[in-house]
Amino acid sequence: MNLTTERFTNNFDFLRVMAALLIAFSHSYALLNQYPVEPFMLLTNHKYDGSFIALGIFFSISGFLITKSAVHSTSLLHYAWKRFLRIQPLLIVVTLLSIFLIGPLFTGLDMRSYFSSPETYTYLRNSFPATGIQFGLPGVFEHNLKENGINGSLWTLIVEERLYIFTALIFFLQHKYKKPYILLIVFYNLLYIWNQKIGQFSSSNLLNGQSAYYALMFLNAGLFYLSGYDFKQKPSVFYILLIGLLLAVSLIFPAMDYFQLIFFPLLVIVFAYLRMPTNKAGKWGDFTYGIYIFSFPVQQMLIAFAKGSLKPLQLFAYTVAICLPLAILSWHILEKKMLKLKDRIK
């Protein structure tokens, strides 16, 4: 089965698009200072928002597929080249647009002050999030309701790209030393449990907060791939319901919350391999990354234009109406062409 055919036998494209839209939906409430009434927050008694679900989907899929990519890459350079082509080209474009288009249009400073500020140019570091990012530009969105960040969604790319680097170890360890790598991830899980449930011995981001949480979701999803289990086998309804029930229990009871990091990725991966009409969601292209990376700055611009008069559902509708065409153009003009170069380096 070739890669194109295989792509249309799973729900990875469908899940990613839904996750990207769900993040835009959740941000439509958060950026208007109406986070407490976001529907998922209300449904879960203010424990989880839509972004929690969406990021769980993203990191689970990414961990599974990036691990697969590392194992099947022909060299470390080949692996790194594929990751670069998927993330950096559009990110570089969006970074430049933020500095030279969004910044000048929405800054409260005069053009001389804006372009003479060092912070205008240090924003270029956002092209490579693994080194950290800068959220704001001088004087930009300073009167927006919630925050003045240009693209708050980029924080996830810091975690994602650092995990790409870590996962590169699989290329070196996949044959003789795969088991020690797996044991290292298991040990990381145990350290996290100890720090969270038994006695906190570290305040490091490696063991606390969202970064550690989603990193473990990514790495545990990778372990499911390395397990060698064939998820393409048709899962029984009972199997899916059981995983869903275990995940629900881990979400409801605080003492069980660690198990979200196992059952969430497992449920996402099992669902991804269900045979259903949504298998062909990517028939016209993969618009996920475009939706994800454009939505936050578009929302910030809309809020600035409207001066706080928008309602969340209005903001979400306008965001989709603007970002979906941008994502389609981005895919066909840039992303698709970049990905065709993936085998130029082996």
Describe this structure in words.
- The protein is mainly alpha-helical.
- It has one domain (3-339).
- Helix content is 66%, strand content 0%.
- The protein has 15 helices and no strands.
- It has helices spanning 3-7, 12-30, 39-43, 50-72, 76-106, 111-116, 118-122, 155-167, 169-173, 178-198, 209-226, 237-252, 260-272, 288-306, 312-339.
- α8 packs parallel to α11 (209-226), α12 (237-252) runs antiparallel to α13 and α14 packs antiparallel against α15 (312-339).
- The longest helix is centred in the N-terminal third of the chain and has 31 residues, at 76-106.
- The two termini are 21 Å apart.
- The model has no long low-confidence stretch (mean pLDDT 92).
Order of helices and strands: HHHHHHHHHHHHHHH
- The domain count comes to 1
Give a count of the beta strands, DSSP E runs of length 2 or more: 0
Name the poorly predicted regions.
Answer: none
Beta-strand share of residues: under 5%
Radius of gyration: 21 Å
| Number of contiguous helices | 15
Main pleated sheet: none
Distance between the termini: 21 Å
Question: Top keywords for this entry?
Answer:
single chain, 346 residues, mainly alpha
Blueprint (SSEs and pairs):
Elements: H1 3-7, H2 12-30, H3 39-43, H4 50-72, H5 76-106, H6 111-116, H7 118-122, H8 155-167, H9 169-173, H10 178-198, H11 209-226, H12 237-252, H13 260-272, H14 288-306, H15 312-339
